[in-house]
Structure formats: C-alpha cells, structure tokens
Amino acid sequence: MSLIVRGPFASILDFARRDRLSGIGAVLLASLVLLGLIGPVLPLGDAEEIGVGPRLAAPAADWLLGTDELGRSALPRIVEGLRATFLLASMAVILTGILGTLVGLTAAYAGGIVDVAIMRLVDVLFAFPPLLLAILIAAVLEPGGTSAIIAISLITLPLFVRVVRAVALSIVERSYVIAAEVSGAGFLRVIVFHLLPNVLGAVIVQLTYALSIGMLVESELSFLGLGVQPPDASLGSLLRLGSVYLTAAPWLVFPAGLLLAAAILSVNLLGDGLRDLMDPLRGRSLR
Amino acid sequence: MKPPVIYLGGVSATYASRRLRDSGSIRAVSGVTLAIERGRTLGLVGESGSGKTTLGKLCLGMMRPAGGFVQFNGEPLPRNRHRLRGSLAVVLQNPEWALNPRLRVGVSVAEPLRIARSLPSGDVPATVADMLAKVGLEPVLANRYPHELSGGQRQRLAIARALITNPTFVVFDEAVSALDVSIQSQVLNLIKDLQASEGFAALFISHDIAVTRYVAHDIAVMYRGELVERASARTFYDKPRHPYSRALRLTIAERDRAAFTFRGQVEGGDAKGCLFSENCPWAIERCVVEKPVLREIGEGHSACHRAEDVGEA
Amino acid sequence: MTSLLDVRDLVVVYDTPRGRVVALDGVSLDLEAGETLGIVGESGSGKSTLGLAIGQLLPWNSRRLSGDLSVLDLSVFGGDDERLRRLRRDVLGFVFQNPMTALDPTMRIGRQLARAIGPRATRDSVRALLSRVGLAGAGRIEQSFPHELSGGMAQRAAIGMAIARNPRLIVADEPTASLDAWLRDQILELLISMCSATGASLVLLSHDLHVVSRYCRHVAVMYGGRIVEYAQRETLFRRQAHPYTRALLESAPGAEGPDGRLRPIQGLPPVITESSRGCAFAPRCGWMKDLCNDVRPEMQLTRDRSVLCHRAEEVLACRSGA
Questions:
Q1: Do C141 and C241 fall within a single domain?
Q2: Does residue C62 form part of some domain?
Q3: How many helices (H) and strands (E) would you count in chain A?
Q4: Residues from chain A contacting residue B200 (CB–CB below 8 Å)
Q5: Residue C185 and residue B264: Cβ atoms within 8 Å?
Q6: What number is the ipTM of this complex?
Q7: What are the tens digits of pLDDT across the range B79-100?
Q8: Same domain for C171 and C77
Q9: Which of A231, C5, C124, C182 is the most exposed place for a label (fewest CB within 10 A)?
Q10: C217 and C135, same structural domain?
Q11: Are B180 and C269 in contact (CB < 8 Å)?
C-alpha cells in the first residue's frame, strides 16, 4: 500500500533496509539500467566504428575491454548490448504482464467454460520447450527483435495467467466482491476496481521473474543468431561472437557473460525480496 | 395488499458434487417456502451446512434455484442483477475482507451509489458522510484505508455500504459472528435501529439464537436444507413447536442438553421420513416412514408430526 | 507444595512493523494440580499470548521483558531447551481453535496418533485413545485423512493428540470457536471429562464468559494484557467487582436492559504500546474517576476474589450498572 500512498522512494529505501540481499539486487539492477540508459552519451566511443584498433587486441587505454574481430572497441558494444537486451526483454515482459493479467483475471472471474478454455490453452503453451518455441517463431517470422519479443511473450505468458488467476480466485470469494455484485456491479467494474488492484502485488513479483527469463531467452536466441541481427549488438550476440575467439580473445566473452549473469541475478534477488514482502505467511504485506 | 418483498415458492438448490466418480449433485436447500414482508426481519437459524447461506444467495439472485421460484416485490427475480441495482444489499461475516484494502473506505461505501447512478456525483460525498454518521462513525474516517480500522468499524462500514442506496432488502449473513462480545452488541443495536428507521426487509442469518432473537421479528429454522419451523421470535422462544428448535433453544437456555445427542448428518435429502427422526427423542413410528410437512400450528408453523406434544412439553 | 503453573508479573511484547505492542502487561497466576481455569478476554486482551507462553510457544517477534512463567518449577524462559522439550512432551497438551492446523494433512489419523503416543504405541493403544475421545468405530477413522473428517471429529482427533501422553496440564485456546453451538458442548464436555479422568488441569481460553464458567471452576477475566478479576465461577456470577466483567455480562444478547435493548460497552478494546499508566479499561468505564487514569491499579485480594480496580468495593456494593 505504501508503494502508492507514501511515494515509491520512501518504501523502496525502507524495503532495502529490511532485506539486505534484495536491497543489493535492487541497487545492482538500478545501476545496470542506468548504465544502459546513459550508455550512448558516455564517452566510451562508437559501438559500430570499425578499425578503432587492431583486430582482437587485448584491453588497453584506448579500448578498455579490447577490440573484436573487426577492430571495434568492445566496451561500447557491451553497453549497447546490455541496453538492447534490457529493452527487448522488458518491452516483451511488460506487454505480456498486461495481457496475462487481463486474461488471468477474466479466467478467474468468468469461471466455467471460459476458465477451462483459457487454462488449457495456457497449459499447451507452457508445455512447449521454451527454446524450441522461440526457434519456431524465429523461423516462421524472420529472425530479429520482433520475433524475440513475440517468443519472450509466449514463453512468459503462462507465468502471469496462472499466478494472476490463482490469486484472483481467492479474492473473488471475498466479502467486498460479493457485496459489489449484489449491488449490481458489472464484470468490468469488479475486475478493474476490486480484482486488479489486489493482484498487482503478485504481478510485480512475477514481472521480475519474467524479466530474467526474458533476458535469458533473448540472449539464447541472439546466441543462436536468431535474435538481434548484426551490426546491432545484444549480450547474446556478443557472447556468440566472443565464444568463437574464446582462447584468442577471452576479453570478448567474459564481460558480456558477467554482465548478463549480474543482470539476471539482480532481477531474481529483487523478485525474491518482493515475494517475501507480499507473502501472507510471513505476516508482512505491502501496506 | 402489497406483495411481500421476498417470496420463495418451494425453492430447491443443488450443488454439483465435487467428487469425480460421483456425477450426482448435493441438495443444499429443498422445497423452502417463505415470505419476508416490508419492514420485517426474518432470522434464519440452523447449524453449518443446513443451507442457510445458500438460501441467502437464492434470495439475492446470486444462485439460480433448481426448483421453485424467487419473487422480489411480486415479480420474478431478474437474471440480470444490474436491473435491481441499489435495491438489494448484503453484509457478510468476515470484517477482515469486508472492504477492498486498496480503496479508501469512503470510496467503498460510495460504490453502490455509483453503480446505481441514482445521485448526481456531486452529492455522493455528502451522502457518504451522512451514512457514516448514521452507523456511528466520524465522517473523516472516509479518507482512511481499511487496515487502519478495527473489525467493528469495518463491519459498520460494510453496513453503511449496504444501506447507502436505501435498499428494499438486505441479507445479513453471520454479520456479527466474528466480532468480540462488547463490539457485537454495539453492531446489533445498530442493525436493529437502522432496520426500524429505514424500514428495509431483512434476512438475518446466524447460528446464534440469542443474537437472532434480539434483532429478528420472525424466526425460521433450517435443518439439513429444509425449513422445520417458522414463528414469531416471541412464540419461537417461548414455545418452540419442533424438537430441533427445542434443542437449539436449549443450548442457549442451557438446560436438559443431555436429552439430545446429535449423531451428525447423513447424506441425502430424499429420505422417506423426517430427517431429524434419528436424533429426535420424540420420534415415533410415523416419523420414520412419513415425511412431515410444514403446517400451521398455534401462532407459527412446524414440520413435525408431534408438534402439538412438543409445544406443550 | 509446588504449584503446577506459576506466572509472576509476566510482561510480553510484540515487535511489529508498526511499533511495539504490549500483549501481557504484568500477569500473575497460580494453578494447582487438578484445577480447571477459564481465561476470558476479547481479541487483543492477551489471553492467547498467555496460553502460548505456557509452552514457550511464543512467535519469533515476541519478547519477554520481565517476569517469569514456570511449569512444575521449571521456568519456560530458562533457556534449557532439552528440559523445555520434555516439558512440552510429557506435561503439557495444547488444543487450538482450528484442528486442521494440529493435524498433518498428509498422514492418516491412526499414524498421527501413534506418533503422538510415542515409541510404545501399538494398534491397541491407538484404538484406546480414539475411543477415549469418542471416536470409536475406530477402523474407519484410523484410516482417514484429516480432510475427510468433519470439524467436530477433527477436533476430537486433535484432542487425542494433545492427551496422548496423559499431560498434567491441557491448554485449550478457543477449541470450539470454529464449531456450532451444539458441537461446542460436546467437545468441551469431552475436554473436561478427560481432565477429571486423568487428574489433569485445564486452562480454557475463550471470549465467551458463559461458556467458560459452565466448564471451569475458576474464571480469570483479562483486559488490556492484565487479569482484571479472578474468582470462583459462582462468586463471579453472583457479583462482579470489576466494571469490565459486569459490562461483559450485561452486554450479551439475552441480558437486555429494561427497555429491551442491549447495553454494549462503548468504545474499542485498546492496543497497548507501553505498560499502561492507569487502568486500561478507564476510557470505556462507567465508574471512571481521575484516579483511574493516573494510578495503575494493583491486584487486591478480597475475601473471595482478586480484582484490579480502584473502585472495586463500590462496584461490588452496587446492584446494577453505574
């Protein structure tokens, strides 16, 4: 509740103070996002300029993280890749979050045949191996950012629908929902006023998990060459190119790999903390 | 003569059985006929699982009867609840979830008004303030969130929300059961006063007879989905005409409890005889083979072959 | 002679995100072997905290500030974990409001009871235990899982768990709050008969003064984390020396005033954040004087009761309400 009432900063600080580990996650995530955002204006050099230095050069003053096989400076490319990965994954996840929440709420509140139909579809989606689904989509459409977004959406959609439905099912039984129905409230009013605000907490937690899955899927696709296409960079495509020169130029792989690991770790830590915060069994809640 | 606010004509209700292999259904209410007149409170008592809450849902149109019919002001209850907006209301048991935790309580209380659109929205805050005063709360509380309030305050707000559209019919389902004794009496007085001043018809569902007797004009007793006795509160308390009512009343009067041993419920509602016969110290041969029907006796109605004897004992 | 339960000036607080809450504000109590004591209070009065403290089952966010509680001369706050475990196992039995929390949902009743009895459990001893708690016809119930039992049967099984090792003291916290009135009587009678059969003592915690006094010889009324009146039930029902006890009896349905209306206690039960300076009931009390807000009342022992009120004698002398 305080997230809404007292303004976000006070409660985020409060939360970081209470829960050290997820506080670290939040700080790490915030700095990575910041790095991605201000990357283009930092004096790191041009990500796409070829021949800044010799090919596959070791780190030096002019190319802090070395150069790649075309002589491009690796540092601006990694920052650029981080930005692309974050951007793609979060766009996909936010869209999915909105869609999944609405679908989950509809399933829970409509019940009956609608519920069964939605949940079986979701089960089918969930049963697909994520990577296979992603490759399938990249093959049907064309490899690139759009198909990565669609793949991430389809993979994370079941996460939202299931969790939102489960939480909403317990809310549907509550007195205030029944009282609203008795006084004549329609479908939309119950969903928007009574169900949505009360599942938001669960959705936020789920967003963090979906974000880490999204980044992983994007990287996997790009690693396979089905995601972001050259000359654009993403962490996955950098890993792929770097892995070719693993022995000759290890500086190409490790920073990108570490950054990806750090990004996913920070999102997961934050998600764990948020989940604890909202877990009724722990007796603490967002108010 | 005006028709009763609520009229149930031989209403039955069933739930689909949850067990996989059992495709049958569980009968929650069977063949209940009763009427609630304007300005009257009917108290509905019985143990849990007796079908009280299902009957409340039927009256509110939250559930379709499997048999029989429900009339509201002499007309069939419409399938679309929106058409009756503002005329029906409910107050439920758990004060914990009485109000949406994400909304200021003033917004929650005003919701039925906004649904009914019976007032220009400029008048809503003043109406809410009036209503809060009526249930004994400071109007400034409207700006609080539910977690800042006590259980008793929340239950008052639930009552305020129910009554704000001036409904014709209100169901109170165990509305005071979760409250502490000292708060319970406050809320009971409130319900009784508001019922007298606003004149709505009410169904007051409770497992507690002492509480029901205090707020209700008439009392109906349910046993395993059937109505076994109906009488004015006074008659019911002084001279119950059904052995089961007697047992209930004795639990508050705290006498002779030993005469009754409840052997619990047995599945099925189509038994040939009286459902209560196996627990009944008055049972005779006839009770096992012939199902008693609700009949007028004295100043009330009882579904017992031996109602005369029971009343005189 | 050592008493079974000895509570001395116990102060227990909870640390919550919204600050400290005092649950027990100096409680003293004695219980002899074989006694039945009912503790009555509304939610927030501290009765459940007291019940949990008897087995040192207090939650992690609670702290004992001062005072002590001992069972058979062993302080439960003494820090001797092994002895505390033995105490819980052999001397104490707990029954809670919701039997489903006491029963393992994944285990058949028979096996759970066998575990409660201990290593020497046999099929016969489990059967005997089941019939002691009125669940004879044992075969079926032994094989049942908790969710297959009705509320009353589950509570009987939970009582079976509690008495499996013949405890000396049974603590029952609202054991019938989730049951219907007529099942309530059966369960409470079962508890009482268990106690008198084995000579165990009973502490029954409830919000209902009538229920408690029907089954327990002594009654303690709690308010605001303190015991405000303690007496034998007959004494307490004949006359009340504390305004709260009296108001509690007068506010219940069935005790309407001459105008046919209930006489509720005005206001709300308090949430105490520090040891109260005066009397916790003063803001709601019809007998309140300046003294009550400023001077903390201490327990007075009169001829037949203990009472925590500055004006107890006047209250006692007055026949009806203030």
A1: no
A2: yes
A3: 12, 0
A4: none
A5: no
A6: 0.86
A7: 777 778 889 999 998 888 899 9
A8: yes
A9: C124
A10: no
A11: yes
In what helix (H) or strand (E) does residue C62 lie, and over which residues does it extend? strand C62-71
Do the domain assignments include residue C135? yes
Residues C259 and C309 grouped into a single domain:
yes
**Pairing state of beta strands B300-302 and B226-232?**
antiparallel
Going edge to edge, which strands form the sheet with C62-71? C19-31, C5-16, C62-71, C74-75
Q: Would C322 be classed as within a structural domain? A: no
DSSP assignment of C221-233: EEETTEEEEEEEH
Q: Which two tokens stand for residue C98?
A: 């919701």
Name the minimum distance, in Å, from the CA of A4 to any CA of chain B: 9
Beta bridge pairs of residue B42: B203, B218
Closest by CA to B273, choosing from B292, B293, B291, is: B291
pLDDT of the residue at B20: 45
DSSP letters for A123-146:
HHHHHS-HHHHHHHHHHHS-SSHH
Do residue A183 and residue B147 have CB atoms under 8 angstroms apart? no
With an 8 Å Cβ cutoff, is B98 touching chain A? yes
Domain finish residue from C166, C183, C217: C166
Nearest CA-CA distance, residue B184 and chain A, Å? 18
| Dihedrals phi, psi of A53, to nearest 5 degrees | -145, -170
Chains within contact range of chain A (3+ C-beta pairs < 8 Å): B
- Is C214 close to B254, i.e. CB distance below 8 A? yes
DSSP at B179 = S
- Residues C282-322: pLDDT tens digits? 988 888 888 898 889 988 888 889 999 998 888 888 865 44
Helices (H), B29-123: 52-60, 105-116
Whether residue C131 sits in one domain with residue C23: no
Q: How far apart are alpha carbons B305 and A35 in whole angstroms?
A: 85
Most confident by average pLDDT, A21-25, A62-66, C236-240: C236-240
Provide CB contacts within 8 A for C143, sequence distance 6+.
C108, C109, C110
Mean per-residue pLDDT, B2-10 = 91
Task: Give the list of residues 6+ apart from residue C147 with CB closer than 8 angstroms, or none.
Answer: C100, C105
Mean pLDDT, residues B158-162 taken together: 94
Look at residue C320 and give its three-state secondary structure.
coil
Is residue C100 within 8 Å of residue C154, measured between CB atoms? yes
CA-based angle C104:A164:A196, to the nearest 5? 125
Report which residue type is found at C25.
D
Asked if the C-beta of C314 comes within 8 angstroms of chain B's C-beta atoms, the answer is no
* pLDDT for position A285: 36
pLDDT band of residue A13 (cuts 50, 70, 90) is low
Q: Determine the distance in angstroms separating the CA of C78 from the nearest CA of chain B, rounded to an integer.
A: 35
Choose the mutation target among B48, B53, B153, B182 for the interface with C, i.e. most C CBs under 10 Å.
B182
Question: Which pLDDT score is estimated for B105?
Answer: 93
C214 lies in some domain:
yes
d(Cα C3, Cα C28) in Å, to the nearest integer? 13
**Tokens, residue C5:** 């339960």
Largest CA distance in chain B: 68
Range of the domain at C139: 102-166
The pLDDT confidence band at residue B246, using thresholds 50, 70 and 90, is confident
Tell me whether residues B182 and C247 touch, CB distance under 8 A.
Answer: yes
pTM of the complete model beyond 0.90: no
C268/B152 Cβ within 8 A: yes
Tell me, yes or no, whether C127 and C275 share the same domain: no
Q: Is the pLDDT of residue B302 over 80?
A: yes
Rounded Cα distance, C285 and B84, in Å: 45
End-to-end CA, chain B: 38
CB contact set of C34 (below 8 Å; sequence gap of 6+):
C199, C200, C201
Q: Which of C118, C145, C166 delimits the end of a domain?
A: C166
The series of mean pLDDT values per 10 residues for chain C, 322 residues long, is 85 85 92 92 88 90 91 88 90 90 89 90 89 77 85 88 92 83 81 90 90 89 94 89 90 79 84 84 88 89 89 81 44
